[in-house]
Amino acid sequence: MFKKILIANRGEIACRVIRTARRLGVRTVAVHSDADANARHVRLADEAVAIGPAAARESYLVGARILEAARATGAEAIHPGYGFLSENADFAEACEKAGLAFIGPPASAIRAMGSKSAAKALMQKAGVPLTPGYHGENQDPAFLAKEARKIGYPVLIKASAGGGGKGMRRVDAPEEFEAALASCRREAAQAFGDDRVLVERYVLRPRHVELQVFGDRHGGCVHLFERDCSVQRRHQKVLEEAPAPGMTPERRAAMGAAAVEAAKAVGYAGAGTVEFIVDPSGAFYFMEMNTRLQVEHPVTEMITGLDLVEWQLRVAAGEPLPLRQEQLQIDGHALEARIYAEDPEKGFLPSTGRLLHLAQPETSYHVRIDAGVEEGDEITPWYDPMIAKLIVWDGTRERALARMQSALAQLRIVGVANNVEFLSRLVASPAFAGADLDTALIERESEFLFPARRETPEEAWLLAAVAELERERAEASPGGRVAASPWDARDGWRLNSRAMRTLTLRLGEVQEDVTVEYAAGGYALGVGARPRVLASGEWEAHGALRARIGERRVHAAVIVAGEKRHVFFEGRAYPFARVDPSQGAGRGDEAGGRLTAPMPGKVIALLAEPGKRIEKGAPLLVLEAMKMEHTIKAPRAGVVKAFRFEPGDQVSEGVELVELEVEPAAAPAPK
Fold this sequence. Notes:
Strand content: 25-35%
Radius of gyration: 28 Å
Distance between the termini: 87 Å
Number of strands: 39
Helix content: 25-40%
Mean pLDDT: 90
Number of helices: 17
Structural class: alpha+beta
């Protein structure tokens, strides 16, 4: 076994490798960009080396700097994690030339599978089933459009290099092909430095099922069963599970054999994933092979009881695989939910900011958290916006679903928009709960997953008020001591009458006055014109609030962040704002023609012509942020007066991107 390894990555995978290495007595070296100088993986590692500016192309993607850090610290091996240089054959080769073990497959295997087109040709020779499509070298747009017509719409355009849903678009009609191809190429060039694509038939209602494979350097190769990764947004996985629901032993054996054949065809060693598209009939087609560990590997670990990172280290050190195929077994069912800093209500737009509060469910044999951040850390615009992975296990899928729901309800995040509530709805959706899976599940179940805004329950307003009153009382009497001055006491005492006051709270565009009358044992509270309710509360640890609302006793959590009071109640989060009526409501005027950047990023393309009239919803420009493209659309009809930036310009969050002259509202028809 190695004595010291360097982790050429960041985030939760770097933290995960450090934990396994520590358990095996292996010392670790972390590398970091300027943006990650105080990141969690840096804090956990035995040593850390700075390798460049925040941009990945100037730090985590510069192989020479990583090799230099390995030499300077005496590391014997490099673990590439996933993403960045993990599937870069030149880097793997450079490690070998430098006398360093690359904890991954040989460079020849990465090259063979690095191009989707070349990989499919190789799989065809090995007899692995392929999706019909064009996988050749001709990249002329007109030729590709012609091939798409031959294949038949809908088609899928995919970047030939890389993965993670980048450079991938579904196209439903010929007139959409040109724009989709251009967008794919831009995104692929940005992410992988290679804009080549392939075009395939889009299988309707497909499932995405992948097989975990593992090879050693002695000719051994096994599969560790399958994962279903069908639930996706923007072709990126959101929920994964193992084993795949509805998988028969016969199909598992057939897919496992095909996956092992694919790995053997390239002389594979280490962890890898062979991905298949499965149509409703059960037929499966090779999609691609990821020559690295996958983000979703924990569900495989949970059902097999194995540590795949440990296997990686042992195989890279020259040891044979620890187990043979017949020794591997499935035990129970596991689910993984990816917790992202993003806003599902705004097309999953990534969010940046500081994690002001991060409460995680208690971990156990059944519940696991893999996180690259802690409370107080910052989600920056430079990298993937993943906060953590929440993994649960139980004996059956039904019990695992219940555990996931419970764990999500305990996960509370303040400081960035996040997808926790969305994931709770997703896990509870009839389609997912009933294992009616395909890659369009989120779009298909959009009515359930993106419900119309429900009216805020009265209890949420009352809890916000109780929390505010109890917070004031605690501040006036720290540690339960009597207030220094009777004028500072917040107990509502009056000489000849009962004390009354008003708290003004706002949630979104709704503002309510909560009348407060101090009463024995609590408060008589009234929301707006509604009847008053007797309420009381008591703080517990970590923002937990035990409250009585009328005859109900409820538990909630209330986190104060600036003017916001984030109330977590019955699986939902309510970010109330305390309003000072003397300062106005603070809503601001959003009725003008300003169109601002929703987050920091780079302008990639301008899609409208200045001086031209556009309709509401028309695409205006493309912004690249957090490794994904985001199309900015017109919120109203009007005339594009000017663009404030050119393609290639970096922009900050909140800056004006487009000057849009809004058309005046039509005059009402005469009566």
